[in-house]
Structure formats: C-alpha cells, structure tokens
Amino acid sequence: MFVDQVRVHLRAGNGGAGVVSYVRSRGKPKGKPIGGSGGSGGDVYIAADDAVATLLIYQRNPHHAAADGTHGRGDLQHGRRGDDLVLKVPLGTTVYDDEGTMIADLVKHGQRVKALEGGSGGGGNAAFISSKQRAPAFSEQGEYGDSAPFTLEMRLLADAALIGFPNAGKSTLISTISAAKPKIADYPFTTLEPNLGVVSIGQREFVVADIPGLIEGASEGKGLGHEFLRHVERARALVVLLDPSPLQVASPEEQYRVLLDELQQHSDELMARPRVIALAKADLAADGMDTDLLASSIGEDAVFSISAVAERGIEPFLHAVADAVDRAVREEPGREGFILHRPVREGFDIIATPGGWEVTGRAAERATRLDDLTVADTADFVARRLDRLGVDTALREAGAVTGDEVRIGDLVFEFTEPDDEDLDTSGQPPEGGGEE
Predict the structure, then answer these.
(1) Which residues pair with 28 in a beta bridge?
(2) CATH architecture type of domain 160-331
(3) Alpha helices (runs of H) in 49-198, residue ranges in sequence order
(4) CB atoms within 10 A of CB 430
(5) Rounded distance between C-alpha atoms, residue 105 and residue 171, angstroms
(6) Are 91 and 151 in contact (CB under 8 A)?
C-alpha cells in the first residue's frame, strides 16, 4: 500500500532524576555528598533512508517515543542517557510541525533533522557542592522530554513524471518501458496511487513516475488533484500524454490546455520544466491525425506518436525524454534538501493570568525542578536560582505585588515584596528575595 502523508505523535525521552547520597562513616552520619546525576532523555530524529519506500508503518503506528534517561545512584554513579529515536522515512519526505511550518526537506540518504529534544537529567546532590553549600540535602528531578505532533509528507523523487487525463495510457506505458507493474484496466480512474519505474535506453537510465490522472480543477482540490500534483513538483521533466482515442471526450488540444492550466495554477515553476509531448494510444487514433499539425496548434516543437500496446514509436520517444532529463540536470541547482534549525529558547516569559502570573520557559522550569520544596534549604536554593535568572525583577516590573499567585510549571508560589529593611544600600532585594 502506498502511503504518502501521515500525522505522527512523537515524544522525546524524559531525563532521569538525581539522587541524594552521602559517604557515611562512624561519627559522621552525613559526610561528603556522593549522589549521582540522572541521565538525559533521548532525542527524536527524522532521517531519510533510501531503503524505505513508504510511510505505511507510521500510518499503522503513529505514536513513537525515545528512551528515558535512568536515575542517578550513590557513589557518584550517574544515570545512563536514553537512546535516541530515529524515524526512517523515504527520500523526498518533508516534515511539518504542528503549526504547519516546514522544518525539513529530506532528499538525500542520511539527511536528518532533530524533531524533539530529550529532557536533561537532574543533578544529584554532589552536583550542587559549593563553598556556601558543602552538604546539599537536595537533588534535581529529571526534565520532561518535548512532545509534539508532526506531519510527514512524501513527494516522489523522479526524473520524469507521466501526466495525462484518467485512462490516457500512463500505466500501460510505464509497464511497457520499465519493470513496474501497475494495475491496468479498460475503465477510467484505475490508478489511485503513483508508481515508479526505472527506464534504460542505450547507456542512459532514468526514473519515471506514473502520476494518477488529473482532471480539470485538480489544482483547486477536485478529485485527488492536490495529492497528485505535489508528486509532480519533484520531477525534473514532464511527459504529457494526450489521448486521441474515441472514448476520450476532450480533444488532444483541449486535454493539453487543461493539463498545463492545472500545472500552472499549482506552481508557476512547473511551467519552466522541460516537457515532452506524446500522442499515446496511436493505434486507436483517428486516421490521418497529423502530429505536426497538433504540435503547431498547441505551440510545441514536436509531438511524438506512440503506442505502448503495439510498441510503436517508443524508442525515439524515450530518447527525447532522456534528453529532457539530461537538460534539466544540467540546468537545475543541486538538491541539497532543507533543514530549519530551531534554537530552544532558554529564557522565560511572564504571562498575566486571572489569579496572578505564570512564568513559562525552559530556564524557569529547570530552576524549580528540585525534589522536595517543602524543605527550607531547598526552597531557598530555588529562590536564589530564580533571582539570578531575573524572574523576581521581571515579575515586579510586570506589576506583581505581595500575595499574587505565581505558577511555574506544576509549582505555585506566592509572590512577596521584600520589606524595606531587607533591601541593601542599592535598593535591591538580597539574593533569594522574591517568591517563597
């Protein structure tokens, strides 16, 4: 089954927690702190892999998570970092975040983008030893890993795309010129998914894509137009197949007008691609159909007359397609793909809420993730952290007053203005003032 668009829900690993531990000996119930830190959680990557042909696995299982970091232990034993999660996707996959921003266009084997970052591990009490804090009685909790939905969209990477009305003979042609085996029948709309085939002609080789039939209004979403037209975007050259058979209501000239109009409405860039025009099903064409006259009427230099069933006119047609692909390769810039680097904001934001204030941001949340804030030493340490970060000053400037509720993550504090006697000669609160 061909799947070219899926929505996945991803989660990076959580960081492990640090631990409180001491060297214990006779007469020294609390000696040197030896609590190890927790390991960081695994990151989530999305990587292009030429061995992957479809996104089907992610449609069947859209939820994926990286491994969590393990907790620290005593004797300075730090937790192990969680394994990264690497989602392998086909070449030509674009990655969109939940806001619809394209964060990556993966076109080469091995290209990858970091979609989510794992949570950092919490520090054990040994990590907080200082000249003022010789025997910390607290440790940090691990940080939660990021989680978010993403949309993966696959666009076929082909040298030439076969474009035409439904039942124009595209599937029959690709089965004749390559080893591809698409479904073929006598009724229209038989192809509902693209097919790829490798074509060899002389010493040259190229990949051709059978794009399902387009109808008028495809660029506006009629039928499955948008689903099919995005695959055309990747093709270096376009092969337009016109159906002259009596069963086709529109004339070859009208078919050509409609197809080019849909391509142009979808993307102006498509009109600049090299094109090869062919009158397919030549064995069913009305007697006396002049390809030179047809070429003149549609404004093209040449129109090839081919029949995949009778295998007529195939070789010169394929040489023309190979020439068009070669010309496109010479003229196009290198396909390097695209990866959007999204730096993580380390600061914080102050948001007014009906009952007080909310402080958001990784730095602020990281400053408060201690194991037990009911312990006075631990609460004082967090207060000093927030003060050094500038949270107290920012709240005061935003209009916070004593008694306001301040929320940081899952924790709730009461904002307290320092008394006048607590201010130093510069008029600033001492280190640790603000929340309590």
Answers:
(1) 25
(2) 3-Layer(aba) Sandwich (3.40)
(3) 56-60, 170-177
(4) 11
(5) 28
(6) no
pLDDT digits (tens, 9 = 90+) for 415-427: 887 654 344 434 4
Q: What span, in angstroms and rounded, lies between the C-alpha atoms of 40 and 69?
A: 5
pLDDT of 293-316, one tens digit each? 889 999 998 999 998 888 889 999
The CA distances from residue 222 to 6, 131, 217, 227, 361, in Å, are 21, 71, 5, 10, 44
Give the pLDDT band (50/70/90) at residue 432.
Answer: very low
Is beta strand 93-96 parallel, antiparallel or unpaired with respect to 85-89?
Answer: unpaired
- Helix (H) or strand (E) holding 5, with range, is strand 5-11
Three-state SS letters, 59-93 = HHCCEEECCCCCCCECCCECCCCCCCEEEEECCCE
Q: Residue ranges of the domains in the chain?
A: 1-154, 160-331, 349-422
Nearest to 66 by CA among 13, 112, 116: 13
Tens-digit pLDDT profile for residues 55-76: 888 988 999 999 999 999 999 9
- Rg of the Cα trace of the chain? 32
What sign results for the dihedral spanned by CA atoms 158, 160, 161, 162? negative
In this prediction, residues 359-381 reach a mean pLDDT of: 84
Cβ-in-10-Å burial (0-12, 13-18, 19+) of 277 comes to buried
Spatial CA neighbour of 316 closest among 330, 326, 302: 302
CB 111 within 8 A of CB 337: yes
Considering all CA atoms of the chain, what is the largest pairwise distance in Å, rounded to the nearest integer? 110
**Which fold does the domain 349-422 belong to in CATH?**
GMP Synthetase; Chain A, domain 3 (3.30.300)
What mean pLDDT is reported for the chain? Answer: 82
Average pLDDT over residues 343-353: 77
**Distance between CA 99 and CA 402 in Å, rounded?**
38
Provide the H-helix boundaries in 235-313. 252-266, 291-298
CATH architecture, domain 1-154 = Distorted Sandwich (2.70)
Using the predicted structure, report yes or no on whether residue 183 has a pLDDT greater than 90: no
Q: Render pLDDT for 282-295 as a digit per residue (tens, 0 to 9).
A: 777 666 578 888 89
pLDDT in tens, 234-272: 788 999 999 888 777 788 899 899 888 888 887 788 888
- CA-CA-CA-CA dihedral for 384, 387, 392, 394, to nearest 10: -160
